[in-house]
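Narrative summary of target 7.
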Amino acid sequence: MFDLPVIAHEEDLALAGEGCMNEGTMSFRLGLKGMPAAAEEAMVARDIALLERTGGALHIAHASTAGTIDLVRRAKARGLPVTVEVTPHHFTLTDAAVGEYDTNAKMNPPLRGREDLAALIAALRDCTVDAIASDHAPHHRDEKDVEFEKAANGIIGLETTLPLCLRLIRDAGVSIETVVAALTTNPARVLGVPCGRLTPGGLADVTVIDPDYAWTVEPECFHSKSRNTPFAGWQMIGAARATVVGGRVVWQQTEAAVPRRKRSAKR
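Modeled conformation, tokenized:
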């Protein structure tokens, strides 16, 4: 009745149980309780069924599985008003990033397998995915420097979202138009807010980027007070250089503040 989307974190708590990472070979090897893909997909299927019944609007947050993408693709084919977002860490990393119990790779939904990652990228490529969200979740070191099962879920994503999205253009065949729309106009459309586009008389909210700037992820140089990133040491290409809000420059990157430049910047 409010003409607003229901934004859902899709998780069947009974199926997820006490899981703390993706259920699969890696969780078995590490001896950690796994969260099955079905925990996400069962709730997506339920909510799509409810959507069809109510005629509302559904937005699925941080989709992580191939099954979720398949459910969304089929719902869209039936004309249902469902939208979906993915995160840079879910289309860049697999559960192998947990490695030797790296709590910086612990999140919910968890990092999944190779097939799931490939499905997310394919869904970005064919525009089944509507938006990319940073899923920025800062945590104090004390919340991560504990046993894996007890560690807080989430990573900081704001300062690595852009270069990881630009990797899609260089390495995965996703068009620049699709990436830009997923970060700007599409989220605004999903939320029904007058943002995300450059139009005469519109809000002058602009991020100025340098798509070719090469840098290394050094968490201690982040503007965030938190350091919980699984991308420490990664070499990136692309950085934001200025932010304009309402026509006013509210932040500008100086050369001295940018992590040191690297000649070789591919990983």
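The CA atoms of residues 65 and 125 lie 16 Å apart.
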